[in-house]
Amino acid sequence: MGDAYRFGIEEEYFLADRATGASPGTAAADAFHAAAAESGLPASPELLKGQVEVATEPGGDLAAAAHALRGLRRSLAGLADAQGLVLFAAGTHPLAVSDAQATTEKTRYQELEGEFGALAHRMMVCATHVHVEVPDPATRVALMQRLVPYLPLFLALSVGSPFWQGQDTRLDGFRLAAFSEWPRMGLPEPVADMAEFERLVARLVAAGMIKDASYLWWYLRPSIKYPTLEMRICDSCTRVDDVVAIAALYRCLVRAAVRAPDAMPMADVVERAVTAENIWQVQRHGVRARLVAAAGTTSVGEALEAALALVAEDAEALGCAAALAPARAIVLEGAGADLQRAAFRAAQRSGADERESLRAVVDALAEATAG
Length: 371
Fold this sequence. Notes:
Elements: E1 7-17, H1 26-39, E2 43-45, E3 51-55, H2 62-82, E4 85-88, H3 107-116, H4 118-121, E5 127-133, H5 140-147, H6 151-158, E6 163-164, E7 167-168, H7 175-179, E8 185-186, H8 194-206, E9 217-218, E10 220-222, E11 228-235, H9 240-259, H10 269-285, E12 290-292, E13 297-299, H11 300-310, H12 312-318, H13 321-324, H14 326-333, H15 336-349, H16 354-370
Parallel strand pairs: 8-9
Antiparallel strand pairs: 1-3, 1-4, 1-5, 2-3, 5-11, 6-7, 10-11, 12-13
């Protein structure tokens, strides 16, 4: 147990105007970010001013990470409230519109806006990123390829982005559709090892296309800041227990891939194509998706049980069993998208129109995020 396979969690949150549920005005957002900076909390602005990112300290204690995230959420929600705002965790903002977005005054973000234009303002998405420390950094790329087939499962456990620019997209996970408008997104390229990965990065840097590997926005990637493998496919999760269950499962799978690589072969061309299809099925149907399996299809619940069986030894070794338990509840009771649609339907039944119902979704998200 201890600090073996240390992990860290990064979460992105939205801000919304408390009165309207829409994106915050620039002055209120600036005041919030100034207060967050003065507070000393591990929070930083994101690309858009209506977003904020937090990070837990690296460690091996999942309960401590859950406690830290709850504290950060409550503290930031308090700072938001002081500016007439609410804070919430979700993959997309139900009422945000792209032409109302302002970019954070930070060199990297200003450069991205200059390069991507309107696409930068459409990046109204928030994610959960999980880092897990890899004992041998040279093996991170091989581990990345072994973990590719599990990406649809992680998306299913986190999926929470059904609404976009005031509309029901009919998808449970619209975030990846918006995310894919940028280059260098999606599944990691099929590089075989760290040397090949570094050659790819070097060519893109030499050509002036990117500054460093942090401009590869893959769903899985070796971190250039930390000795970790970073998973980036997950929507921002409204419930802390969901986040921690995802982090626990990812941590266990990394250990399993090191411990028993033959049980988790590197994804070949066929497996990558199957994974891409399964990601789409989860985007569309969430936890009710049918996934392509070795023979026919399988459910998200069955895929989860297979993963839990694979990592049983690792969960025991890392002390992750309790943190993994909520994963089954997500499959049975629904992910973030289901929570949002339930709030929308409840508002509709009470006589609210579509915009009022989306405002009710924002309120429900803010309450659940801080809770």
